Amino acid sequence: xxxxxxxxxxxxxxxxxxxxxxxxxxxxxxxxxxxxxxxxxxxxxxxxxxxxxxxxxxxxxxxxxxxxxxxxxxxxxxxxxxxxxxxxxxxxxxxxxxxxxxxxxxxxxxxxxxxxxxxxxxxxxxxxxxxxxxxxxxxxxxxxxxxxxxxxxxxxxxxxxxxxxxxxxxxxxxxxx
Length: 177
Fold this sequence. Notes:
Blueprint: H1 2-28, H2 51-67, H3 70-98, H4 100-108, H5 114-124, H6 132-175
């Protein structure tokens, strides 16, 4: 049961990474003139070089955990390997497109290891002054996130309870003479 919850949480994170990185990339993409395409280094791209691929990989892992089936594991492993190969190809293209700027970016930001990216960025960030208003906003944001997590957990528990009721009804109807 814990694996199921973990799977849903990982799925949510994967979708967030995928949508967030797509939005940032689209903001910087210039459709008419590809030579003016800019390297995105802010937002989630400051922590990992390939957040969209990370999102896809998290979604695949989540679906493997949720389904808990061997065929999902086999197909998921193949998909993750293919995504990793796509990452390597995209990096080659980015080196050709952006040159030394991308090589420097590769040295500063990990490929898809979010934890290493956070640690690297945290060591660079120096908070010199936070206003009381900023601190209050951070506290409100923390409370909001905790409430959302509580809400999602409650919904998951309700779904599990409902599914158990359905399962019990099926068992009772099949056991009647």
